C-alpha cells in the first residue's frame, strides 16, 4: 500500500514541486506559458511549511532542515534585506518595494517541500521526478517552438528573436547535469546504486538539443558544455564524439535546421556582437559611472512598481539581470569584495556539514562561475543552489539510514565520520 501511495500520490507531487521550484510556469517576459502570482503562491507555501517546521521543533526538523534553515535565512538577509535597505538610503525607495524586487531569493526555502516529499518516495523515484519535470519543460519548449502552445505573455522584450522562450531553462540544465553525472559514474549521486548509463546519456542528449534548438540561449549552452568538461574531464572527448554523431545529419542536410526552427541568423549575429544592440555594454558603463559617482557605496536595486524603477535614472535598457557579477557590484558596492567570498565560504561550510561528498556540487558551481559575468550567481540561481543542498541532504539521510539502530550516533558524530 505504501509503494502504491508513493507512486501515484507523492511522486506526482514531487514532480509538481520541482516544476514549481524551477518556475516552469512562472510569470516572466521570456516565458510564454507563465502565470501571474504562481511563483508567489509557491513561495508562500514554502514559507508556511518552513514556519511550521520551526514552530514544531521536532527531531526530524533538527537535522538537515535545521542546517538548511541557516542557508535560507542567511541568503534572504544578505540578498534581499540588505539591497532593500541600500536602495532606501541611495534612491529613497521604500524598503517594502526593495523586498518585493528581490523576492526570488525566497526560493532558498524551496528545500522544505522538496525534502518533505522526498521522505515519502524512494531515491530512484526522486530522480525520476527530476527527470519527469525536466521532460515536461522540454515538451512544452518544443510545443511552443512549433506553435502548438499559445503565447500567454502580455509583453515581450526579446526584440531580435520573437520565438525566444525560457520554459524551465535551469531545470533543463540541472537535469542535464544530473544525467551526465550518472552517465559518467554509472551510479546514483545520492545513494550510489547502479543506474542505466545509456538511458541517462540519451536523456542528456535530448536536454542539450532542446537548449540548442528550442530555448536557444547561448549562456545556458555554454553552461552545459562547461559542466561537461569539469565533470567528465577525459570522458568529455567521448561525449563530444557522441554529440558529433547526433548532429551529423544536420551537417549533411542543412535544411533540417530550418525545419527544427533554429535561428541561424541569431547565432551569426551574435558572433558580430549585434544581437543586443549594445544593451549590455550600456548597462555596464552606467553601473561603473554610478559607482564612481557614489564612491562605490552600496545602491541596492529598484522595483518597477516604484516610480518605474531604474528608468528615470538610466533609461529603459538597464537590466542588472544581464550583467552578472557587475550587477552584484551595483547592489553591494565595495561590500561585494567581502560578501562574495563570505557567501561562498558559508555555502561550502553548510554543504560539507551536511555531507562531505562535493564532486558534483563543485562541477556545477564551477560551470556557473563560467557564466557569472552574464548571470548573477547568488541573485538569480538560488533554485539550483537549493536543489544542490537538497541532494546533499538526501545523501546524508541515506548514509544515516544504513547504520543499524543500536549503532546510530548523534548528528554531529555522524557528520564527523563522513
TrEMBL record:
- Membrane-spanning regions, if any? 42-58, 70-92, 104-122, 129-147, 167-184, 199-230, 236-253, 329-350, 362-394
Keyword Lipid biosynthesis in the entry? The reply is no
Which UniProt keywords are present, listed alphabetically?
Membrane, Transmembrane, Transmembrane helix
Per its record, how is this protein called by name? O-antigen ligase domain-containing protein
Q: Which species does this protein come from?
A: Stutzerimonas zhaodongensis
